[in-house]
């Protein structure tokens, strides 16, 4: 998943992806309030605080994190299938169709009738928003921290805090437990600053690449749009593959500036003709 998902209207993405986005929204809206309501319910009925009650308390937050993760994996599988099929997939069921001259097609799998040009734009928008398995790595210098680092840091920080507390009260080591209580907050603050700093840097490089036809050297940011036959950067000597480099810069730009990226017709399938 791209770290800055942006699309203005749900009608601008394929319906099969739209359904999974609705599942993500529903799971978060329903499960997150349950995280705060369960303790109130325990107090109302007089449930003792034991291991089972703790597990019940963690269940909603676990579901609110796990369900979006599973749905986003399915979305990435759909965008990968569409990229493999040159974006020629039904927006309702993601079944591949054969290209033709007609402007509208009825899917043979789900009988859904759709406009071909609109479908191509929807799949392009989805690939730029969510990425795909064939996207490959982002250009060097623009890679950001993974989004899952935030939910992972919470149990790690709390586990470390519990370990310190156990060592203090069981082994009497004289550790400043009060100081370590601030550890999760400090770690979250540092990671958040790094996350948004790298995010801003990647967005700035994407805008710079768009001004040079999405051809920048990954090592030194030298413009390469005038080097039609070269495969080595004349500034630093780094090798590059023109079409793949252009596609990756375009996808980076599209993940942060989706509406602007949709104005460009950069092929999303390297070494093949784009539909």
Would you mind describing this structure in some detail?
- This protein is an all-alpha fold and 275 residues long.
- It has a domain at 1-135.
- Helices cover 56% and strands 2% of the residues.
- It has helices spanning 15-45, 51-84, 116-130, 149-171, 177-180, 183-210, 242-256, 258-261; strands at residues 104-106, 113-115.
- The chain has a two-stranded antiparallel ribbon.
- Strand 1 (104-106) and strand 2 form a beta hairpin.
- Helix 4 (149-171) runs antiparallel to helix 6.
- It is flat and about 75 Å long.
- The protein starts with 14 loop residues before the first helix and ends in a 14-residue tail after the last helix.
- Mean pLDDT is 77; it is low at 1-9.
Any low-confidence stretches, pLDDT <50, length ≥5?
1-9
The largest sheet is: 2 strands, antiparallel
Shape: flat
How many strand units? 2
> What is the ordering of alpha helices and beta strands?
HHEEHHHHHH
Give the % helix. 55-70%
Q: How are the strands of the largest sheet arranged?
A: 1-2
Strand content: under 5%
Cα end-to-end separation: 24 Å
Q: Structural class of the helices, strands and pairings?
A: mainly alpha
The total count of helices amounts to 8
């Amino acid at each position: 998943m791209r770290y800055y998902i942006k699309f203005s209207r749900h009608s601008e993405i394929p319906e099969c992806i739209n359904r999974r986005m609705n599942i993500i929204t529903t799971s978060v809206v329903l499960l997150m309030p349950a995280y705060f309501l369960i303790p109130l319910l325990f107090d109302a009925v007089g449930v003792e605080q034991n291991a089972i009650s703790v597990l019940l308390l963690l269940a909603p937050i676990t579901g609110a994190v796990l369900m979006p993760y599973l749905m986003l994996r399915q979305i990435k599988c759909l965008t990968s299938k569409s990229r493999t099929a040159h974006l020629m997939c039904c927006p309702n069921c993601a079944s591949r169709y054969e290209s033709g001259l007609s402007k509208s097609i009825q899917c043979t799998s789900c009988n859904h009738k759709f406009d071909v040009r609109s479908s191509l734009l929807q799949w392009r928008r989805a690939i730029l928003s969510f990425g795909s398995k064939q996207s490959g790595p982002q250009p060097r210098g623009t890679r950001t921290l993974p989004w899952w680092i935030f939910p992972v840091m919470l149990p790690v920080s709390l586990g470390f805090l519990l370990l310190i507390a156990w060592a203090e009260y069981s082994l009497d080591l004289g550790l400043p437990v009060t100081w370590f209580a601030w550890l999760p907050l400090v770690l979250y603050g540092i990671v958040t600053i790094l996350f948004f700093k790298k995010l801003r840097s990647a967005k700035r490089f994407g805008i710079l690449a768009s001004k040079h036809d999405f051809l920048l050297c990954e090592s030194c940011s030298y413009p390469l749009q005038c080097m039609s036959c070269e495969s080595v950067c004349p500034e630093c000597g780094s090798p590059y593959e023109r079409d793949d480099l252009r596609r990756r810069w375009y996808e980076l730009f599209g993940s942060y500036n989706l509406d602007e990226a949709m104005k460009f017709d950069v092929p999303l399938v390297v070494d093949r003709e784009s539909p």
